[in-house]
Design a protein that fits this description.
about 25% helix; globular; five-stranded mixed β-barrel; alpha/beta; disordered C terminus; FAD/NAD(P)-binding domain
Length: about 425
């Protein structure tokens, strides 16, 4: 059995981001901890290729991994469209096939980091450390003991919740035969798609050039579609709603992100913590998580450097979680028209105010100003009834195991 200061279980965005932060210079008198990062062998537990998008003002320390960014955004409603300027904020895209290998190589060259390939089967907590066991790529037993353990693996199921919708999507990377896109504008939501009875649907278009873009069909609804359903939705959008002419599909991404007001534990023992989606990093009302993952990683590294217990911080302010829960309830009950809600949100507020709320950095005064442009009675009714609603398992809400498959997380927006 080997021993290290910190064990990180899972080599996805959350696990590698934390390890990367922990290897940064720790300051006077603080040594970089010894770290073991355990990633499963290539197979069913491996993460599929995906994109992560987030908002950031100016330059950031992840810019080397950014494959594209946009300074303006477009939201199309049924009867109007809204173009907003980021005023210094940019919507940035990082692709997993760029980020994960680059950070893995960076960690592999660090003398204080060990990269292990193994399937973790157990984590045993104790007052002074935790033991991680599993089998390596050859089938041999593996055991690592860490003073602290951070588990970033997606949960096998969702905690009980009052409301759970699924953000499910399929996207095509397309190349058109003629100019069809404005590479300076990220099209966040186009609500001209057929709307489901509960929830909402929209198209999401990220142009890379005038002829290359990611075109994605997304739904917030109780259940995922069949393969034929996603195919039909994308065909309808690219042929009839927004005709692209002749085009070639060069790649595809697909996934499911739970949108839930469930409580995700950040701690599983004296020395074991959960991070990433398993620790509640996914924003309930949007499905975004990447920026939250980065803030969590930075806070953990800062706490560890200061000699404090490295408990992951609360991922989202309580006030924002309550607002998200009310919105989820209003969408799930059909009290609000999702397309009209989001179009009005972007049309009636300066983009920095909306981004502050989405990023979890807005003040109470800013949130009140934002709320005044929402449908007040449906949102107020949904908020007031939340304390009286029972929390139910995903199976009881009709979602079953599709609520959080291993291949679930993609763009973890902003």
């Amino acid at each position: 059995m080997s021993e290290v200061d910190i064990v990180v279980v899972g080599g996805g965005a959350a696990g590698l981001s934390l390890a990367r932060r922990l290897t940064a210079p720790a300051g006077p008198g603080r040594a970089v901890p010894s770290i073991a990062v355990i990633e499963p062998p290539t197979g069913p537990l491996s993460s599929p290729p995906r994109t992560w998008c987030f908002w950031e003002r100016g330059e950031g320390d992840l810019d080397a991994y950014v494959s594209a960014s946009w300074g303006r955004v477009l939201v199309r409603g049924a009867h109007r469209e809204v173009v907003s300027d980021g005023r210094g904020h940019r919507y940035k895209m990082i692709r997993s096939h760029d980020f994960l290998p680059a950070v893995t190589a960076e960690l592999a060259s660090h003398e204080r980091v060990r990269l292990l390939t193994a399937t973790v089967t157990g984590i045993v907590d104790s007052p002074d450390g935790a033991q991680v066991t599993g089998t390596d790529a050859t089938g041999q037993p593996m055991c690592v003991r860490g003073r602290w353990v951070f588990d970033s693996r997606p949960p096998q199921g969702l905690p009980p919740a009052r409301t759970t919708l699924l953000q499910h999507f399929r996207g095509w990377f397309v190349r058109t035969a003629s100019d069809r896109f404005d590479p300076g504008v990220a099209e966040l939501m186009d609500f001209r798609t057929p709307q489901p009875a509960r929830g909402l649907s929209f198209a999401y278009v990220l142009p890379f050039t005038r002829r290359r873009a990611l075109v994605e069909y997304t739904e917030f609804s109780p259940r995922v579609l069949s393969d034929d359903g996603y195919q039909a939705a994308l065909e309808h959008y690219t042929r009839r709603v927004r005709p692209l002419g002749a085009f070639t599909v060069t790649g595809c991404e697909q996934g499911v992100i739970p949108m839930t007001d469930a409580h995700f534990p950040r701690r599983r023992g004296a020395r074991v913590f959960t991070i990433g989606a398993a620790g509640g990093a996914v924003r309930p009302a949007t499905g975004y998580a990447f920026a939250t993952i980065q803030r969590q990683a930075a806070a953990i590294a800062t706490a560890r450097s200061a000699g404090a217990p490295p408990l992951p911080p609360r991922p989202h302010p309580r006030r924002h979680l309550a607002m998200d829960a009310a919105l989820l309830r209003a969408l799930a009950t059909g009290r609000v028209d999702g397309g009209a809600f989001f179009t009005r949100l972007f049309d009636s507020n300066p983009l920095p105010r909306v981004l502050g709320f989405l990023n979890g950095t807005s003040s109470l005064v800013q949130d009140v100003a934002l709320g005044l442009h929402c449908p007040l009675w449906p949102m107020t009714r949904s908020l007031l009834e939340l304390p009286f609603l029972p929390r139910q398992a995903a199976e009881d809400q009709g979602q079953g195991q599709e609520a959080f498959p291993h291949a679930a997380q993609r763009k973890a927006h902003p």
